[in-house]
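Worked problem 6 (solution included).
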Amino acid sequence: MRKNYFSEYCLLLWLLWLPISAIQAQGRYFGAVETVYPSWFKQSFLDLGEEVNDAAAEHRRLLILFYQDGCPYCNLLVERNLSQREIAERLRSSMNVVAINMFGDREVTGPDGNGSTEKEFAVQMRVQFTPTLLFFDEQGAVVLRLNGYLPPEQFKLALDYVAGHREQGLSYAEYLAANQPAASPGSLISEDFHQDPPYLLHLRSAKPLAIFFEQKQCPDCERLHREVLQDDEIRLLLAGYDVVQLDMWSQTPLISPSGERTDARSWARHLKINYAPSFILFDTDGKEVIRSEAMFKRFHTASMLDYCVSGAYRKEPSFQRYLSARAEHIREQGRDVDIWQ
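Solution. The predicted structure is:
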């Protein structure tokens, strides 16, 4: 029997061509930025109990900065915030800053004396975003936590709160309220997907719940509406939610997902909402899944919305690992990913 060499030749060509085609179809990846951290960050053996004591002996406090390679928000913290002389001098005079890679393998001894790796410690501290900043007091307790990037003015308020030991007399929410400008005239920026009152948030729905906390005359809120919420993908994802917008300083009555009768201001204080705009995503059982309480652009906002509405949080507790997997899945479909978009 004569072999069909032509068929085998065609098959070989196809097999050789397939991986090249797959590579060519892979979407591109944009937005990652490598960051050079300031030389005045402390070089540490990551024994955090000792770091707390060393800082206290110098009349300072310990600040742990969780980062990851390629993080554009970490880069923004360094390039925009820490490049400002006032912020840098205040930070250097009042804090010992130690950086920890949330996916790193260096050994860490926590303030409680327990050992782990950097990535295990990040899980223990429930780090979901970078940068995450943990400010410790002289006893090794966290007195303030910032989950994500804050613009310079908000960052300076946080720094003044911790450096001034204000937690001994005020909660951070109370401190922010005392330093807010007088009530602004006007109204919040409304969207057609916002639900109207009454806000009976304890009533279960087939959809998860998205609560947006905003305030009037808020530049960051304006940026959210102008640059993020007009995105087609985000609006499609929001269609899978019941969406409620609240003025975080108002006395708008509501019943919370847990069934508590309260108002927007009191509920925001209870939830420790310290930044406008913030949003919290609740599942259909009324349990919080994830929250945004810092500045995020479109890709990360869409990913948070998808993380909850798709149910991915049930299988992957780490949002950052989900984020990487989602970016890879998008690229496999031949679409580009820009994490700084």
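Discussion: Residues 5-25 form the longest helix (21 residues).
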